[in-house]
Write a structure and sequence with these properties.
By secondary structure, this protein is mainly beta. It has strands at residues 6-11, 15-20, 25-29, 44-49, 57-62, 65-70, 75-79. The strands form two sheets. It has a four-stranded antiparallel beta sheet, with no helix packed on it. A three-stranded antiparallel beta sheet has the order 5-6-7, with no helix packed on it. The protein is globular. The termini are far apart.
């Protein structure tokens, strides 16, 4: 396994996330709610990049959903939205960042 160099990390019960040195989000573990924002719900046992946020992500948080703060301050979210926790004005789960 190659080392991962990160500028930020977040850990949930079943998932982990990191921001690498080029401000790209990386994910590991359970993706059962689509919280990795990759358009699917496949779990990962090795670090998985999401190229969508390349060069833009400053910080993140993860559990059944993931929140990203982009370099310009914009917040993006993906994953479980059963209680409206993504802040998008509805209760629809998202499998890509919105």
């Amino acid at each position: 396994m190659r080392p991962v160099f990160a500028t930020g990390v977040a850990a949930g019960e079943d998932s982990s996330a990191a921001v690498n040195r080029i401000s790209q989000p990386l994910f590991l573990g359970s993706n059962h709610c689509g919280q990795f924002g990759l358009g699917h719900k496949t779990n990962s046992h090795s670090w998985t990049r999401n190229d969508w946020g390349l060069g833009k992500v400053v910080t993140l948080d993860i559990e059944d959903h993931c929140m990203l703060v982009m370099r310009d301050g914009l917040m993006m979210a993906a994953g479980r939205n059963h209680f409206g926790q993504l802040g998008l004005g509805d209760f629809v789960d998202r499998h890509v960042f919105a």
